Amino acid sequence: MLELKNISKHYGDKQALNDVNLTLSEGIYGLLGPNGAGKSTLMNIVTQNITPSDGTVLWDGKDVQSLGVDYRSIIGYAPQQQGLYDTFTGRRFLSYMATLKGIAKQDMKKEIERVLTYVNLTEAADRPVGTYSGGMKQRILIAQAILGNPKLIILDEPTAGLDPKERVRVREKIKAIAGDKIILVSTHVVSDIQSIAKEIILLKDGAIIDKNTVDGLCKKHDCTDDLEQVYMQVFGEDV
Predict the structure, then answer these.
(1) How many other CB atoms are there within 10 angstroms of residue 80's CB atom?
(2) What is the DSSP string of 193-206?
């Protein structure tokens, strides 16, 4: 279980997150909000890329700061097209990430082939990442996120740059690997998360303004099973 207790984050006079409290158990969660809502800040705090100004992150009741590398070893994180090495081939990039994650050498080849197949990049695995399209780069980031079968997976706009068929494929794969994992997906493509999310988290101006099932949110806002309409009502803008 992942718990965020009274999490706030300040950048000078700007408050990016304001007293966020959140409990996530096994399942897929959609994180929705307009630009500047604090989604990236929240994900970066969960992944320990940044430190909160106030509050505590707990994993199974233990402060993640005290867990250190044991906590980081159970995280898979896919940022939106960041941290790539353009001169590396896809396979070399995954090998490098597998080494950083501490995956044993005897298991590495099989694990890399597994994730390449998962994101449909086997045929392009020996090409430099710099030659990949935007969608292919997004898929290689998803591949490295699921290396080592992590228990907590954070995906930032995982379908950005993908064509409709690939978006459906990635969505179904995310659903397929959920099982005993916690998966937090930040996205602007509401249709990609509506059918697979256990719950939707609505974030606005650094605060969680609602957290509910898709059905619960649609009933509350009288939107007839249309999460995009909920988004427009809550945030006052198109998806």
Answers:
(1) 16
(2) HHTT-SEEEEEETT
How far is 9 from 17, CA to CA, in rounded Å? Answer: 5
E-only strand ranges, the chain: 2-11, 14-24, 27-32, 54-59, 62-63, 75-78, 152-156, 182-186, 199-204, 207-212
φ, ψ (nearest 5 deg) of residue 91: -65, -40
DSSP helix/strand/coil, 100: helix
Start-to-end C-alpha separation, the chain: 30
Mean pLDDT (the chain) is 90
HSE-CB for 40 with a 13 A CA cutoff:
8
DSSP code for 49: S
Q: pLDDT tens across 93-136, in order?
A: 999 999 988 899 999 999 999 999 988 899 999 999 999 987 78
Query: CA geometry: angle at 83 spanning 82 and 87, to 5°?
Result: 115
